[in-house]
Input
Amino acid sequence: MKIPVMSDFVAAGEMPEVLFWVGCAGSFDQRAQKVTGAFVKILQHCNISFAVLGAEEGCTGDPARRAGNEFLFQMLAANNIAVLNGYGIKDIVTTCPHCFNTLKNEYPELGGNYNVLHHSQYIQQLIDAGKLAMKEDGVFKGKRITYHDSCYLGRANDVYEAPRKVLEVLDAELVEMRRCKSRGMCCGAGGAQMFKEAEKGNKEVNIERTEEALEVQPDIIAAACPFCNTMMTDGVKNKEQEEAVKVYDIAELIAMGNALMDVK
Amino acid sequence: MHFIPQVLFSLLLLATGIVAYRKYSFIRRNILLGRDETLTGSTSERWKNMVLFALGQKKMFRNWIPAVLHLFIYVSFVIVNLEVVEIVIDGITGSHRILAAPLGGFYTFMISLIEVLSAAALLATFAFLWRRNVQKVARFTQPEMKGWPFKDANLILLFEIVLVTAILSMNAIDYQLHQRGTPHYPDTGNLLLGQYLSNLFSSIGSNTLILMERAAWWTHIAGIFFFLLYIPHSKHLHIFLAFPNSFYMRQDTPKGHMDNMPVIMNEVKTMLDPSAEVTEIANPPKAFGAKDVTDLSWKSLMDAYSCTECGRCTAACPANQTGKQLSPRKIMMDTRDRLEEVGRNIDTKGTDYDDGKSLLGDYITAEELRACTTCNACVEECPVNISPLNIILELRRYQVMEQSDAPEAWTQMFNNLENNQAPWQFNPEDRLKWAEEL
Ligand code: SF4
Ligand code: SF4
Output
């Protein structure tokens, strides 16, 4: 499928409504690519004019900065800000809470000022604006869904309600884990942990969190972050529950609920 | 000879004042050894935070059982100290309960309030001793609590029992003596607890009672003086520092925000574009990140002195829960211990003395630092708004940028980021490949 890139818009002398920041996971990770696809389907379904940067996008620098490599972070950030400012970008939406946090909170000091939304907030706005009505006989009716808070969305940015509001329209049964919202437990991937082996301990963080999720006997664990998604999926596999319990991003759930995507 | 107690009291007061001044100045000086940190946000917001978090104990109520128990001790401590005003006047002038007559019914009310709160605090103290020593609540038993921190916590609870016993018996005996018409024991009105507790002393002779009253009075005031001098060595310093620490807490920045490093930003900007305009940095730091406590911001150092060692951070830490070495509470305790050591070195051996030790390495290890997922759970839970995460991240910066010390997988990730603008080894030209499969 042809996805509009910024350079096309500029060539046509136009501006998209919003720039979709895909992120490294969304671009390269097979599982996260599906989430990217689902979100694109939602944007198209709602007739949103959007663009991506394609090859001009680079890592926001989140893992480099959190690992302690500020030089590398500043390099990556400077390049991205040059591209974004060059195109005169004002509005950005992203499916990754880490990109969201860096773009929104850390780029302004470096000269990059944008309105940044996480896709949970963006989808909520679409629903509120009546652009995204749900089908009557929801495919998720009667299913138990538990939402796992991403640290970089929740505690880092106090976004607790948007993803839950989005899930509410699915007409499913939402159940909260023992630790949720500001007390939500990390999946174990943040702070560049995703890119190295865990330190010595007696358990993996994602297993601990998955056990907590399984306690509430969900049919679906909903995530809003590509890294949480990986961690929870691995956890469910480790517990040999992958037949009974699925891990989906909220964008996938909304896309499936609107028959924009096959229900798997 | 009747003035001897007055002289003794005045000397004790003076000595306590001098020693306290030195101890608290030491702490203030140590905090100011930290790097500058520019404060942002509004002062009115700061006052609000202080009222909310320190005075109002907002975060404590995330966990209501310890919150209520702690509230008893906290409120009784604040109110009891009003009585200390009278004790000090009496001590110096040789009067006895000088405020009783002028305040009248209000005096009875205040002393009764103190009695009730003291009794509540006594119950809370027993509950806390139980939680620490019998129930052994998990967050009190981590390795960093062994030794002095464990003793400190229990000592102060035992001390609280002594103090409360002194207060209650002092008032009850006073009441009893007044009932007997003993001279110099003025009417305190019908004290809520004192009037009943005084019955416990009814069979004791007046002379013995006067001695007992004096003993309780001295125990009470000497206890408070001792407490004042003990606090600087204890986690109980938080009773003072929780206030400025909440006042100076970060505002207007979401927790996900990491401090910028303007020096590096400028360097990178001019590297990419030699004509780029950058603002000069006054006082650039000697090194990137932090190796020792003096490389941390003064706010992080105040954080360390404000830590209550409650372990709410550690109990919420995903790394700690899964058996990793990291404990955010230990990060704070190590920072304080090291800062005290640096402070003592300065006082005894001069400012240029280098003991060859540092926070990174001698106190906090690479393994601890690397276990952090930057999840902010510790920051969220801390009742006095401390950020262990800030310290962790500054130490990580030093490790990676000054010591080039990173796990192999991170070095690989850095290379990928540099060459492919992604943490994995993918061709940047393939960034849009996902679209083909849609
Ligand atoms: S931010 Fe780091 S230290 Fe704090 S709770 Fe999370 S993993 Fe633990
Ligand atoms: S840092 Fe805060 S939460 Fe952690 S032990 Fe100290 S006071 Fe308690």
Notes: Residues B 307-313, 328-329, 332, 381-384, 386, 388 surround iron/sulfur cluster (ligand 2) (CB under 6 Å). Chain B touches chain A through 69 residues (CB under 8 Å).
